[in-house]
Amino acid sequence: PALAQPPVLIPAPLPSWNEGPNRQAILDFVARVTREGGPDFVPPNERIATFDNDGTLWAENPMYFQGLFAFARAHELASKDPVLAQREPFKSILAGDQAAIAKFGEHEIAALMAATHAGMTTEEFNAIVRRWTETAIHPRFQRRYVELVYQPMLELLAYLRANGFKTFIVSGGGVDFMRVFAESAYGIPPEQVIGSSGKTKFEIRDGRAVLIKQADIGSIDDKEGKPVNIDLHIGRRPTAAFGNSDGDLAMLQYAAGGPGARLMLIVHHDDAEREYAYDRQSHVGRLDKALDEATQRNWVVVSMKRDWRTVFPAR
Amino acid sequence: PALAQPPVLIPAPLPSWNEGPNRQAILDFVARVTREGGPDFVPPNERIATFDNDGTLWAENPMYFQGLFAFARAHELASKDPVLAQREPFKSILAGDQAAIAKFGEHEIAALMAATHAGMTTEEFNAIVRRWTETAIHPRFQRRYVELVYQPMLELLAYLRANGFKTFIVSGGGVDFMRVFAESAYGIPPEQVIGSSGKTKFEIRDGRAVLIKQADIGSIDDKEGKPVNIDLHIGRRPTAAFGNSDGDLAMLQYAAGGPGARLMLIVHHDDAEREYAYDRQSHVGRLDKALDEATQRNWVVVSMKRDWRTVFPAR
Ligand SMILES: [Ca+2]
Ligand SMILES: [Ca+2]
């Protein structure tokens, strides 16, 4: 005979996560660090959680979405500029020559980035990215890219914030690119977004102070660059860190290196049906060394297929 | 005949500020940007206020306090190391040879900074700075340096935060040096402190991830470097900016370059009796071009002597 259920007063946290050891590990960690007087209590001002973006908070196939933005923008520029249209890499992009595009090397990528990510004010760049996020559509899912964020990770962000955590993005993606949508997509304000960056130059234009984006690289926020930038921007070790690839290993190690309870979590893409399946051999988001270390050190390795009830938000 | 006064229910803001146009300009600005539906309303997430530190939030004489820290630390290191004690610049520092010290050039300063600010983990450096803040005493005021913060500016920080502003330090001082005391002294957490920085190197030591401070300079957060770093770290234009020298001019111009109501404020040190008096000719905190531009553009120029009822907090 069925027992009477007690009334549910508070919605259960992480509703898109299936019950199991991984969801439980998250709940246990949060319970430990928030229990006042407990041995693992962390004061709210020290509750820092850092999240990789591509492949951790949103999808990264068929290529990094910022790469798709750069190609779309290059196409737009070349289609309006006959001189540019005759020059590589714009000529191949305009022609949609996939064989040529696949062979792009450092020189072509640098030219592409300079044309699409530099030579304008920061405010002009933001407006261009914003227009792209509002209009560009993912070829497989037929949604806007900002709708290809992971519903379970949105719930995890909200759950951590409800428990006093300050949530940061620490990603190899461009910092100003991500800031355009991070606040509306993830609830993460610009000042909590850390990423790769180009240099900028201060100028007075028509009596008004502006910053002009330069083609020179400032910082690559990947691998060892992640803990270095976490220290530069945040100045505390994260209590919890979330990633999906070898590019996140140093950040996860840095979080693990602090005292007390810590949470290190990797999203493992093993769901070709609902999203994509890739790890050790992938050219994007390669997960190899970090998977071994996670297994060895008992970090949480999330199976997208088994742990996530849904992948993307309902439309 | 005197009118009956209404009962005062809420303590007046900025109690250490004398009434007058400068205090009123602050109150008016905050009223405008917080009035919902008003023409100058700024949503809370966009209320960003940036403060210079040396000479704006705490004193900077007889030299930048971080310089005094470096000398004290060099003295400590040289007194324990006979080899170092025989080498310049440590020999002159150990001997207290003021004439030699006054002649230190780039080479000596670089050696001093390398010995006192590099070659250790970030956590070791923090512990050394913390010990200094707890023990070192200012020669004139006979107080710890962290007690030489400006009471009116503490009230201004608190007043802005009470009105939804996020307060940041944007200073030429070392970011990790300032973070040691910024939270207890100003209520500004490490992730809201922006400053000059050296490079750091990620290493695994005894199985634990650490960052080692390097002697190489990462970023000088002064002059045009201030708006550049504000964009890199915050990603929004400040609505309000506070400084005291020409090193803050670009930051003030950057704040002024945004739309709607803005507050640009300069602390003018004109109080030799209670603090120090210096401006156009000073080697530390020179205020010359920024004073002209502030006058011309009607920015708030605070007279320490006339506008501040008290300078330092009561003991
Ligand atoms: Ca990733
Ligand atoms: Ca200053």
Would you kindly provide a written description of the structure presented here, covering whatever features stand out?
Chain A has 2 domains: 21-62 and 144-307, 3-Layer(aba) Sandwich (Rossmann fold); 65-135, no CATH class. The first copy, chain A, is 40% helix and 17% strand. Chain A has helices at residues 21-34, 65-80, 82-85, 90-95, 98-102, 106-117, 122-135, 151-162, 175-186, 225-233, 249-256, 289-297, 304-307, and strands spanning 48-51, 166-174, 193-205, 208-219, 240-243, 263-268, 300-303. Chain A has a 7-stranded mixed sheet with strand order 4-3-2-1-5-6-7. In chain A, strand 3 (193-205) and strand 4 (208-219) form a beta hairpin. The longest helix of chain A is centred in the N-terminal third of the chain and has 16 residues, at 65-80. Chains A and B meet through helix 9, strand 3, strand 4, helix 10 and helix 11 of A and helix 9, strand 3, strand 4, helix 10 and helix 11 of B. Bound molecules: calcium ion (CA) (2 copies). The site of one calcium ion (CA) has 8 residues of chain B, from loops.
Please describe the topology of this protein:
The structure is a homodimer of 315-residue chains.
Chain A: H1 21-34, E1 48-51, H2 65-80, H3 82-85, H4 90-95, H5 98-102, H6 106-117, H7 122-135, H8 151-162, E2 166-174, H9 175-186, E3 193-205, E4 208-219, H10 225-233, E5 240-243, H11 249-256, E6 263-268, H12 289-297, E7 300-303, H13 304-307
Parallel strand pairs in A: 1-2, 1-5, 2-3, 5-6, 6-7
Antiparallel strand pairs in A: 3-4
Helix pairs in contact in A: 2-6, 7-9
Protein name (chains A, B): Haloacid dehalogenase-like hydrolase
InterPro entries (chains A, B): HAD-like_SerB, HAD-like_sf, HAD_sf, TAT_signal
GO molecular function, one term (chains A, B): metal ion binding
